[in-house]
Write a structure and sequence with these properties.
alpha/beta; Aminopeptidase; Alpha-Beta Plaits; four-stranded antiparallel β-sheet; 16 strands; binds zinc ion
Length: 389
């Protein structure tokens, strides 16, 4: 029976798993009951090895095929939810106040479970494959922690793949690209200290609010004056804080924001210019200003051969017209980047049709696309690691 048809038979089970996971969201590295659920399913499927507690609550499963293979495919799903109060009103809505699967990681976990069930039942591949269920994608970099914990070497993984759902993209379609697909994310904070005093006597103070405004304006010139028009770069100030009332000039002020880049050269330039601008502006206003620049997830960079291969498999599963292999870069970030730094591989977006956007309190994963994602993973393994005839 073709993969797609067989996995379609799992639809009702997959929907039930997904809705159970949706109702029980967990945050960051603390995906323990989610991991327990994953492990229970994997035991039912009869996978060969289950390793728990990697990166706190990550789970790795190994399924043995027939004979040997040079390639050992790693398939990754993220399991964590977001600190958002759900507003869907659905029967399977979150039962955990203030927590919600608003990025569809419940669906990603379900798709990988569906693929695992099929692969454990059929074993129509050579060598072994590795299923990776990670915590802490939404902050904490769980994928990087799993790599640091030795997942790639320990299980001999030679290449890695992952899918993320996308609202607004045609249901069941795929888009990917060779090279950078998701941006690097850095965070900056500026702590400004002046000299507070009476709002009526500014001459006796050193106003940290004026310095905040000067620094905030000057930071806008990094994109407009320091970067090439051809560079892809975002510098956004997302928080400013200063003051408490109408007649007091405060002692301190605070700026915080995000930087998105695709190239290490541009990233280095932004950090250097921020240091120069903050120091120069601080001197001109006579305040102390300290910059804290923190590099977060690196850019997610797809490898050419694995991306072409994944696009071929997606075309087999979804139809050639439903696959875009030269899709756009996204300014969002993704910790699968760390796995793609460790091994060649590819990251794909899969459309889930019209819905509320990711990270929105009315978002819900579309169960209709789960079998498509599972079939993609399953066929990827069968084609990467064919059984010798
Ligand atoms: Zn997200
Ligand atoms: Zn996500």
């Amino acid at each position: 029976m073709p993969v797609v048809n067989r996995i379609a038979d799992y639809s009702a089970d997959m929907t039930a798993w997904r809705r159970h996971l949706h109702a029980h969201p967990e945050l960051n590295f603390e995906c323990h009951t989610t991991a327990d659920f994953v492990v229970e399913r994997l035991r039912e499927f009869g996978v060969d090895e289950i390793h728990e507690g990697i990166a706190t609550s990550g789970v790795v499963a190994v399924i043995q095929g027939r004979g040997t293979s040079e390639r050992i495919t790693g398939l990754r799903a993220d399991m964590d939810a977001l600190p958002i109060a759900e507003e869907t009103g659905l029967d399977h809505a979150s039962t955990a106040p203030g927590k919600m699967h608003a990025c569809g990681h419940d669906g990603h976990t379900t798709m990988l479970l569906g693929a695992g069930r099929y692969l454990a039942e059929t074993r129509n591949f050579a060598g072994r494959i590795v299923l990776i269920f990670q915590p802490a994608e939404e902050g904490g970099g769980g994928a990087g922690v799993m790599v640091d914990d030795g997942v790639m070497d320990r299980f001999g993984i030679t290449e890695v793949y992952a899918i993320h759902n996308v609202p607004g993209l045609v249901q069941g379609s795929f888009t990917t690209r060779t090279g950078p697909i998701m941006a690097a994310v850095d965070t900056f904070e500026v702590f400004i200290t002046g000299r507070g005093g009476h709002g009526a006597r500014p001459q006796e103070t050193c106003d940290p609010i004026i310095a905040l405004l000067g620094i905030s304006n000057a930071l806008q010139t990094i994109v407009s004056r320091n970067a090439s028009a051809l560079d892809k770069l975002v510098v956004s100030i997302t928080q400013v804080h200063a003051g408490t009332t109408d007649n007091v000039i405060p002692e301190t002020s605070y700026i915080c924001g995000t930087v998105r880049t695709f190239s290490p050269d541009v990233q280095d330039m932004v950090e250097r210019r921020m240091k120069e601008i903050v120091a120069g502006q601080a001197a001109s206003y006579g305040v102390d200003a300290r910059l804290a620049y923190t590099r977060g997830y690196p850019a997610t960079v797809n490898h050419a051969n694995q991306t072409a291969f994944a696009a071929e498999v997606a075309a087999e599963v979804a139809g050639a017209s439903a696959v875009t292999s030269d899709g756009p870069m996204e300014m969002g970030a993704e910790d699968f980047a760390y796995m793609l730094e460790a091994r060649p591989g590819a990251y794909l977006f899969m459309g889930q049709g019209e819905s509320a956007g990711l990270h929105h309190p009315k978002y819900d994963f579309n169960d209709a696309v789960a079998p498509t994602g599972a079939s993609f993973f399953a066929r990827l393994v069968e084609r990467a690691q064919p059984v010798a005839r």
